[in-house]
Amino acid sequence: MLKALSKSGTLLQLIVFLAIGALLWFPAFVHPPGIASSKLAGPLFTMLSAWFDGSLFWPVLTSAILLVFQAFILHTLLSSNDLIPRDCLVESVVLLVLLSWNPSVLSFNPAVPALLFVLVAIYMIMRMYGNDEPYQYVFTAALSIAVASLFYLPAAWFITGVWISHLTYRIASWREWFISILGFVVPFLYVFSYYYWMGELSEGWIRLSRAIMQPFSHIEHMADYEIFTFVLLGITMLITLLITINGIQDKLISIRRKAWIIVDFALAGTGMMLFTFNDFRTSHIFILVPAVFFISYAIIMVKRSKIVDWLVTAVLIIAVSIHFFL
């Protein structure tokens, strides 16, 4: 079904995207859930939330706009690096469903703006390929991860994705490693300067360290249907990951390396989730970007993918059904 959609033309895919988005987000506009509270929210999210001044409508509208924007950024990221066809919007549709199926994440939460900067970081890392002096890309990627963590503190773990990508690109020069550390540290210098002037330096440090250093903490309480869906998504991601890795073996080395960059960030995201079990509804959002790539590639770019196509379609139908009936 999704493979057929990918061949149906850009206009029809765009109409499907907008229709599904309207269907999934209409209840949130009718009964706005407000702003999600999270102990792991960073100072930028706290500041942004204060700007809404108690409004229920504007947080939902902001979340919806950011989600649509991120869906098309993901399309640009993948298509511009020849990982999917340029006229295919299936990955945007899949991301939209996976980011909207659970009513509890339709509220404005810190992962929504943070994910935008993680996507920018992945894009910058891919731009590094074949560049003899990729210093600006390394710095921008690390800086983007730091800004993401100022919205959602555990997003700081994605700096390990940047470092793993250096190994993928076989970067041996110390400059790229040093620049990535510098780019990551710069935003925190401003944050801790602010904490210092406000007399909250020790409290800020404790809050940050606790947010990123809680390995295997107690898992957030979730309903049975949520656990079932998350397990189903995890199995689907693993299956499509294996299919994608096998499918890129005969591609150009540039495509293989860029596909592995997404695997690198999937590893970083998995590591982050192990440290944020107590905020799983929010932290799992970051792993959806690699999952969408694996799903889209396995369906669109791999031949004889009918079984996977029907599997993913069934998972998406289940997710949408849960959205409306549970």
Walkthrough of the structure:
The chain has helices at residues 2-6, 10-30, 43-51, 57-80, 90-98, 111-127, 135-151, 159-168, 174-197, 201-212, 224-247, 253-274, 280-283, 288-300, 306-325. 71% of the residues lie in helices and 0% in strands. The chain has 326 residues and is mainly alpha-helical. It starts with a helix and ends with a helix. The protein has one domain. The model has no long low-confidence stretch (mean pLDDT 85). It is globular, with a radius of gyration of 19 Å.
Structural class: mainly alpha
- The total beta strand count reads 0
Task: Name the beta content range.
Answer: under 5%
Low-pLDDT regions: none
**Helix count, DSSP H or I runs of 4 or more residues:** 15
Run of helices and strands: HHHHHHHHHHHHHHH
Quaternary structure of the protein: single chain
- Rg over alpha carbons: 19 Å
What number is the mean pLDDT? Answer: 85
Number of domains: 1
The dominant shape is globular
* Main sheet record: none
Range of helix content: over 70%
Q: What is the terminal-to-terminal distance?
A: 25 Å
